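Below is a filled-in request sheet from our internal design queue. Each sheet records the structural input a requester submitted and the sequence that came back. We keep these sheets so that new team members can see what a complete request looks like end to end.

REQUESTER: design group, bay 2
PRIORITY: normal
MODE: inverse folding
CHAIN LENGTH: 276
BACKBONE (tokenized):
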């Protein structure tokens, strides 16, 4: 199977399946949603961190000369700081347009589609979510494409890690669209449409990065910094809201499940690649 076909297949499946999983999740009773979503977040943390530290970073380091390792490490640091600044700018813009500080609103929760976002009730808010999701998915597609251009096994693992953190995000996006006046069918359609930008990003990466082998390790480290930042800055803090022993053990268990899945898929992908 050609690399391009792998890219198209996994970017399309990952994007569409994450949207469909989010849609199915929203069909559950609200009580079950509250029970299931934290487990999905814990699972995503394990998948993202394992994809970064056991997949993307080692492969990036293997692709460069020893004297370039410090530059790659600096790229990871710059990526994490860059994502912090970007999110800070987005939060600042949101607060100034919605006066969240004046009302004591947690803008981070609003961004992920919790109850504060449900009060907006304006179609423009929904369109902003669709546009932002499309851009985010496009970048994910570029990173997945860069991973596949480096190694098919790495591409498969990266696609799984992206899908793991996309599902909780898509749930939030779906909820915002519904509360912005969109019918369920419309919300599903626009979410799937936005998810297809992942394919566009992957295909663009294939044709634009295919001849730029020296650039690929830097894309891999940027992808790793993205995974690390999402897990550490966005997802882990939400787990600290509950500190009882039972919940903490469940969180650890699902994080480990995410770790194990990525490691197992790495082994399966490696064997599949060897046979192919």
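RETURNED SEQUENCE:
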């Amino acid at each position: 199977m050609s690399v391009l076909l792998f890219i198209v297949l996994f970017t399309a499946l990952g994007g569409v399946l994450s949207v469909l999983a989010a849609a199915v999740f929203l069909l559950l009773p609200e009580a079950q949603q509250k029970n299931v979503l934290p487990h999905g977040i814990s699972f995503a943390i394990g998948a993202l961190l394992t994809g970064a530290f056991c997949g993307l970073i080692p492969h990036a380091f293997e692709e460069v000369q020893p004297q370039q390792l410090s530059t790659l490490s600096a790229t990871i640091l710059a990526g994490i700081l860059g994502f912090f600044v970007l999110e800070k700018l987005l939060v600042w813009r949101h607060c100034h347009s919605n006066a969240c500080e004046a009302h004591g609103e947690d803008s981070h929760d609003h961004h992920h589609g919790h109850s504060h976002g449900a009060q907006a009730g304006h179609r423009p808010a929904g369109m902003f979510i669709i546009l932002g999701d499309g851009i985010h998915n496009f970048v994910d597609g570029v990173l997945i494409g860069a991973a596949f251009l480096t190694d098919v096994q790495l591409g498969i693992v990266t696609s799984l890690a992206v899908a793991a953190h996309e599902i909780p995000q898509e749930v939030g996006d779906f909820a915002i669209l519904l509360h912005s006046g969109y019918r369920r069918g419309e919300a599903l359609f626009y979410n799937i449409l936005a998810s297809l930008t992942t394919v566009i990003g992957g295909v663009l990466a294939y044709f634009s990065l295919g001849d730029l082998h020296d650039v690929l390790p830097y894309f891999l480290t940027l992808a790793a910094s993205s995974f690390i930042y999402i897990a550490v800055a966005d997802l882990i803090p939400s787990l600290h809201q509950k500190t009882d022993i039972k919940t903490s053990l469940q969180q650890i268990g699902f994080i480990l499940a995410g770790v194990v899945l990525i490691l197992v898929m790495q082994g399966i992908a490696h064997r599949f690649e060897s046979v192919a």
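SHEET NOTES:
- Residues 101-122 have pLDDT under 50 and may be disordered.
- Residues 92 and 107 are 9 Å apart (CA to CA).
FILED BY: M.R.
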